[in-house]
Specification:
Length: 560
Amino acid sequence: MENSTVMPVPVAYNDMSAEASLRDHVGWVWYQKNEFIPDRDKDLRIFLTFESAQYYAVVYFNSELIGEHEGGHLPFSFEVTDHVKFGADNKITVAVNNTLSYSTIPEAEFQYKARKEMAFGGNQSMTQYAPGFFEMTVQFDFFNYAGLLRTVYLEKKPKIHIDDIRVVSDHVGAIFWKIVLDGCSSGCAAKVRVFDADGNEVMKAAGLTGSGQVKNPKMWWPRGMGDANLYTFRVKISSPDGQIVDQYDEEFGFRSVTYDNHQMYINNKPFYCIGFGMHEDSEIHGRGYDEAVMTKDLNLFEWVGANCYRTSHYPYAQERIRESDRRGIAVILETPAVGLKVFTDQNLKLHKQIVTEMIMRDKNHPSVIMWSLSNEPHTERKESRNYFKTLVDLAHDLDQTRPVTIVYGPSHWEDDQTADLIDVVCLNRYWGWYDDMGYLETVNQSVVFDYTMWYEKFKKAMIMTEYGADSIVGLNQQPAVDFSEQYQNELIRETHKALDHLRQAKILTGEMIWNFADFMTAPAALRAVGNHKGIFTRTRQAKQAAYTLRDRYLKLLPQV
């Protein structure tokens, strides 16, 4: 390959050089590597799996086209068995394109700039834009990090293997399972065993589908409500001739999620979410998976006293969801559909694919308590209603055990077309920042009025999923001014007064500040090297507001 360089995987390629041409690149990049596959694997089936490729991927194996996938942040896999050279190197080639438009999810405005040419001074002329010049303006407030953002690997499976496991359980010990096999149309058998965290067998059964009961289960609880107890669901598959051909262990927890028009409940106990909206974002790695950063983030969650977060604005790495299972941190899992303005059949088809992939990936995680279909879509538009009704119905069909939400931003209680369709209303509001900046004395009353009006119209339990203000670390000004640490801190305190009122009025079932940590964005007049609404810096150092939030969350945690 020409103009090539070494590129680690996983990582966003944008920050891997000192050149703006790579950071701001829009279009195709190509990855290539050789992978040796030994002769001993000849009796196995080989799959090439990508955990995330942003945004559009075309995959070749030994120079033959294997498949294509649209959409980042979710896994996809292609079988390559028939193309493998056993006992030799195999060439893997991937083309990834990060171009976005109003036909992608998320959306961007993509336009070629008209070439203006003016003649002057006889034979002289000037042009404003070079031929083919274009601008891509994303419709979201985070950097469009691209490339192979998560792990890429070869999976080696037996000819008959487990393709999918679904485990549904509740807080009284009931369990239902469904196992899907690949390579066996009939005659295969499954043995099922369930083990507690100490390795004790608590149930055994047989069948590709079935149900059972575990006596006196230790329930999975979010932080502050109990322990995050996990169990292991072990499956062994026998071929028609009785040989064991595959085995898989799946972690799960006994817990239920329910809701009414005031409250969400975990295991029939009232649950109040205290946590964050955030981003998978860090220096150098960009949006690439980084285990150290993930661990630091979740440790800071515990330091602050949080029990919940939203995967704003895309599904996060599976490793983070698994670790949330183990730590007892509840998760609202969100699609990449942020800022939607276009509600066409083409976009709906892609959106349905994304919702399906997201739910199928994370359906067995006890930490996942709700599915978010979109962040801040323009649901004041009439065409959004049928669009989102289709998606709400799809999510409910795929999973009857969790509520479904939309996170609202540009729409208002007077004009929203969709909130009656969903189960819990999530609402982003920035009183004192984007609205009435500098008038902190209005924040409390404005928040209470806004949320009360939404509640009175739709009668749904609500979560404040975003509020906050930017602050530049070290910028101190008293009296407070915008972008100072003092202003961010005072706005948060004023918002908390409103949250206390709404909680006592049984309107709110959760609160999440925006944002956990500062993050990178595209260049913009209000973005001084990114978005600075974090209570931590991008390097995860605490601002003044972190201590204010910690004081609040640690007091709330025993109450929830």
